[in-house]
Every structure is written in structure tokens, then in C-alpha cells.
Write a structure and sequence with these properties.
The protein is an all-alpha fold. The chain is 71% helix and 0% strand. The protein is built from 9 helices and no strands. The protein is elongated. The chain starts with 16 loop residues before the first helix and ends with a helix. The model has no long low-confidence stretch (mean pLDDT 82).
């Protein structure tokens, strides 16, 4: 019986020490990214009190070696967290991430659909999907002004304003902005 044969019946092959080390380093890197966030951004990331206290403690650490050990502790605590959700939330704060770019492009598409031919139907769908949007009158006004800009093929001021409005509404919905 070879070493491989013993794993044929098992559902999972045990992780190697190297794989475990890579995962721990990834959690420590995520911890470093979290340390780079502002206090307001950090508040918007869902995590346990233990992990939150670890970040408060990290703010008091000045020595390099102590910070390295503390990052190892943060990595250890993060094993019990939903680190994928945390990583996704951190990615939304990072303008160079794929998640941020995807959100950005989705908002561009939504803006173009609101300006397009079926704008009334798209607007009613948008309002239904986003009940947190408070100033619907402003939204309608921005859509009309943007449509006017498109027909005149002039500047893009109102389209930019509409995009900014949509982005702020989405950030509120995701809890990225208060």
C-alpha cells in the first residue's frame, strides 16, 4: 500500500506544512491591510471583539519586532473569523482591487441604463432595489440633465454627478459610507 492509496477513501487530503504556512501568511497580510485602514473604515468591517481589540492594541505598538509578533497573533485570531468576507470588504476600500473595479463598472452600466431609452423602467427598478435612496427628485433631475448632455454631445458634468450620486448610494447600501 502506497502513501497515495491511504487517501483514496478519505474525502480530504491533509494540508502540508507549507500550505498551512501560506494560509497563515495570507491572514497576516490581510491583517496588515486592515491596519492600513482608517478608524471609520475599520468600524465598517465586521469582526469579533477579540480581533477589534487586537487592532486597537496594534496602534499602541511602536517596536518593529513587537509588531511582527502582534501580526502573527492577528493572523491566529483571524483563523476563527470569516476572513473571506473581511477580505472582500477590504477590497472594496482599495481602489486598485478587482472588487472595487467591478463595482465601479457596474455603476457605470447602471448610469448608462438610466440615461438610455428605457430610463423610466430602469429608474423604477432601481428605486425598488434601493429603498435607501432618499432624494429621488434629485436622481430624476440628474437623469434628465444627463440625457440632455448626451443628446447635445457636449460636456459630461451631469453624467459625472449622476455617477457620483449612484456611487454614494451604493456605498451607503454596502455600509462603506455613513
Amino acid at each position: 500500500m502506497t502513501d497515495f492509496d491511504q487517501f483514496e477513501n478519505d474525502d480530504e487530503i491533509p494540508k502540508s506544512k507549507t500550505q498551512i504556512k501560506r494560509e497563515m501568511e495570507a491572514l497576516q497580510d490581510l491583517g496588515k491591510k486592515l491596519l492600513g485602514l482608517s478608524k471609520n473604515q475599520l468600524k465598517k468591517v465586521e469582526m469579533s471583539d477579540t480581533l477589534r481589540e487586537a487592532f486597537v492594541e496594534a496602534g499602541r505598538i511602536k517596536q518593529h519586532e513587537a509588531m511582527r509578533r502582534h501580526l502573527q497573533y492577528i493572523g491566529k485570531v483571524m483563523r476563527t473569523e470569516d476572513h473571506e468576507a473581511i477580505a472582500h470588504r477590504v477590497a472594496l476600500f482599495d481602489s486598485t482591487s478587482a472588487a472595487y473595479n467591478k463595482l465601479f463598472h457596474q455603476l457605470e452600466v447602471k448610469r448608462d441604463m438610466l440615461i438610455g431609452e428605457n430610463s423610466k423602467e430602469v429608474l423604477s427598478e432601481y428605486i425598488e432595489e434601493n429603498p435607501q435612496v432618499e432624494d429621488i427628485q434629485l436622481l430624476r433631475q440628474l437623469i434628465r440633465q444627463s440625457q440632455k448632455e448626451v443628446s447635445q454631445e457636449g460636456n459630461t458634468t451631469n453624467r459625472k454627478k449622476l455617477f457620483r450620486f449612484l456611487r454614494e448610494a451604493e456605498e451607503k447600501r454596502l455600509g462603506l459610507k455613513e
